[in-house]
Amino acid sequence: MKRSIWKNPMFLSGFLYLFLLILASFLYTILWDDEVRRLYFISENGFPVESAPISPKWNYPFGTDPLGLDMLGKILIGAKYTLILSFIIAFLRVVISLPIALVLGTYLQRFKKSINGTIDSFHYIPLSIIAYFLLHPVLWEPFNGFPTTMTERFIIEILILTVLIVPILSSLLGNEVSMVYKEEFILSAKVLGASKFRIIFKHILPSLKDKLVVLFGQQIMQTLVIFIHLGLLKLFVGGTDVDYSFVPDPPQSSTNEWSGLIGDSFRYLQGAPWVPLTPILFFASAMFAVALMIEGYVRATSGHSHFYKKFREKYNGEAVEKKDELKAADFKRVRSEGETFGG
């Protein structure tokens, strides 16, 4: 029995967390114009007792960075760029892959094996490395400054991170479409004279609706992971500000998006761990919120647990594989014993 997703506490809690985080980011920009509080040192009785980076305090719950800037303020500024861009990229991936998958699963079933065999090679290529080489000329600031605007860099990054996943996603969805296309209710519709176009829009798409929603959430999490990888490689969302002076400062994010906060502060993991761990914490919490939304949606629409079902399928698959291996081993043992006895 389907229930409203808005009444599911897991979906609602994940949605509210992300919504409030993005809302706080826009409100911070409107009210304080993206200016971050700064605290160079803390003094007691006129003597400095701690200097930047300052560890978490009551007024600075996530501490400050080496320049004395409030980490919470930087997180709030960058939240809208990190989260909204991941939503856009995930949405475009699903929207572009879906029509390709419908064609693969209905009109090109004869070529499915050869197409899947070609696309499967993409699974073994680290997409973060490909994205790095494609995005480096766009996001890394040259000596004379960026030749593109920040909006143009956003658009180029969105397109590249979308197109890289489309072949794999199209193949995955194409297999799902092919499976649905072989169902009995589809065969009945074909017997009654329904065209492929009608079957796609009246039968296949409604059957894929829940899977598309889950896939959208999974792509959000995958996009956030790619952001982290690129951040560690010093390629930040919106562009990497590079200092070419005689004594250069480290590369910095031009938008305070979260991957940039990781990439330009990871070297402080030993001396001031709160500096890189704060954006890592928010990355993890955002992905956990998306996972809650997926779980809540599946429970509200189907009544079962999405992640428990995946775990059970994996466990059962491993158990069956192990059972088959034991059977094969027993067969070999019996055959060898029989040969020995016969000999």
Description:
- It is built from eleven helices and four strands.
- The protein is mainly alpha-helical and 343 residues long.
- It has two domains: 233 residues, Orthogonal Bundle (MetI-like fold); 32 residues.
- The strands form two sheets. The protein has a two-stranded antiparallel sheet with strand order 1-2.
- β1 and β2 form a beta hairpin.
- α1 crosses α10, α2 packs across α10 and α8 runs antiparallel to α10.
- It is elongated and about 90 Å long.
- The N and C termini lie far apart (64 Å).
- The mean pLDDT is 85.
In a few lines, what is going on in this structure?
With 343 residues, this protein is mostly helical. The protein has helices at residues 9-32, 71-106, 112-119, 127-139, 150-163, 166-181, 184-191, 196-232, 258-263, 274-302, 306-342; strands at residues 41-44, 47-51, 240-241, 252-253.
Secondary-structure content class: mainly alpha
What is the CATH topology assignment of the largest domain?
A: MetI-like fold
Tertiary shape: elongated
Number of H/I helices: 11
Q: How many angstroms does the end-to-end distance come to?
A: 64 Å
DSSP helix fraction: 55-70%
* DSSP strand count: 4
CA-based gyration radius: 26 Å
- Major sheet details: 2 strands, antiparallel
The first-level CATH class of the largest domain is given as Mainly Alpha
Q: Can you tell me the CATH architecture of the largest domain?
A: Orthogonal Bundle
Strands of the biggest beta sheet: in what spatial order? 1-2
Report low-confidence residues grouped into runs of 5 or more.
none
Overall pLDDT metric: 85
Instruction: Give the count of structural domains.
Output: 2
Q: How would you name the CATH homologous superfamily of the largest domain?
A: MetI-like
Order of helices and strands: HEEHHHHHHHEEHHH
Percent in strands: under 5%
